[in-house]
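Predict the holo structure. Ligand: adenosine-5'-triphosphate.
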Amino acid sequence: MGTLQLISPSLESTIQIGRILGKCLPAGTFVALDGILGAGKTQFVKGIACGLDEGGWAGLRSPTFTLMLSYHGGRCVLHHVDFYRLNESPELPGEILEAIESDRAITVVEWADIWREVWPEHYVHVSFEIEDDTNKRRITIEDPRGICPDLAKELDDYVIEPAGA
Ligand SMILES: Nc1ncnc2c1ncn2[C@@H]1O[C@H](COP(=O)(O)OP(=O)(O)OP(=O)(O)O)[C@@H](O)[C@H]1O
Ligand SMILES: [Mg+2]
């Protein structure tokens, strides 16, 4: 799969799209999230957590002040990281680099573009844009390595581009 453009009409839809992606993702995938403040990145991670473990998102918080939060209850470990606070850092903490390189965990990073040089080969990049209507989000999913080949079919209800994907 290459690139998909989706429209999420509501918060619930964004969580559902994250959940569908979470179900498709193999262990060892790095998921890079980008988009401005309030675009929906943390809500989307709730969906991913739910895709790994149906009840798993209940306690999910934003890692802005903790750098990394890890969840062990699902089909594989989920690490949730935010690069926003690491913007000025000369290097990333070792535990975060280990999480990114792990082939057993899924590591999801908000504000991932800040440290693009640490992205591993196997990544999925998801960007969020706020549409004029404040509850609508345009979500672009790039999967250059074809990690989730069935994603277009699974996300059919939300895909606008490529048409008929
Ligand atoms: N379609 C939608 N998808 C996602 N969030 C939505 C949507 N419509 C409204 N919202 C609201 O937008 C906000 C998204 O907040 P969230 O914390 O996920 O943003 P974020 O991208 O993680 O921001 P930050 O960069 O500050 O971490 C929430 O308050 C949510 O209720
Ligand atoms: Mg956030």
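The two ends are 10 Å apart (CA to CA). The helical segments are 11-24, 41-52, 94-101, 151-154.
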